[in-house]
UniProtKB/TrEMBL annotation:
It comes from Amphritea balenae. Keywords: Membrane, Metal-binding, Transmembrane, Transmembrane helix, Zinc, Zinc-finger. This is RanBP2-type domain-containing protein. Residues 6-25 form the RanBP2-type domain. The chain crosses the membrane at residues 57-73, 79-99, 106-124, 136-155. GO terms for molecular function: zinc ion binding. The keyword Protein biosynthesis does not apply. It comes from the Bacteria.
């Protein structure tokens, strides 16, 4: 028990020494951030934890831009094979989420534009830019920027967060 006056981390009520729970709201004096979140909105902590798990399952998609950029710079088909293999594994592992996501037209359009732009960049690199030409680095940089924008829009924007929340609701019925 605290030997001093302390302020509740949730409701800011000032409590007397010797009390280990807030007299106003009942939160522990030693509450962690997780405890405060659980106290504020019951079920919100579990929901956020599960949504974070969904987002972590998608994180390997981050490696795709680097591999695509490497392919664009080097032009080696082996790297393209690794990209395709990684993409197949990720699509398989996240098939339930992706099936849910594809129900939304904006997600479908974003995915199509995202992958079409990457395909165009790879095609331009493969057909028109010499292996060690100056344009290879610029095309690689452009592919990384396109991927970063697509990733942020799909998974970190307000719409992306709403998508994860909706998936949480349907997956946990």
């Amino acid at each position: 028990m605290p030997d001093f006056k302390w302020s509740c981390k949730f409701c800011s009520y000032v409590n007397l020494p010797g009390i280990d729970k807030c007299s106003e709201c009942g939160l522990s004096a030693y509450a962690s951030a997780e405890d405060i979140e659980l106290h504020a909105i019951p079920g919100a902590y579990e929901k956020n934890k599960t949504i974070k798990k969904y987002q972590d399952a998608i994180v390997p998609f981050i490696f795709l831009p680097g591999l695509v950029a490497t392919y664009i710079v080097k032009g080696q088909l082996e790297i393209l094979a690794v990209v395709m293999l990684l993409l197949i594994v990720l699509l398989y592992r996240n098939s339930a989420f992706l099936a849910h996501a594809m129900k939304y037209k904006w997600v479908l359009v974003t995915f199509c534009l995202w992958f079409l732009s990457l395909f165009i960049l790879m095609y331009i690199r493969r057909e028109y830019v010499p292996i060690w030409g100056d344009g290879a680095g610029y095309i690689a940089l452009l592919s990384v920027l396109v991927n970063a924008y697509g990733f942020l829009y799909l998974f970190k924007s307000k719409r992306g967060k709403e998508l994860y929340s909706a998936y949480y609701e349907t997956a946990n019925k």
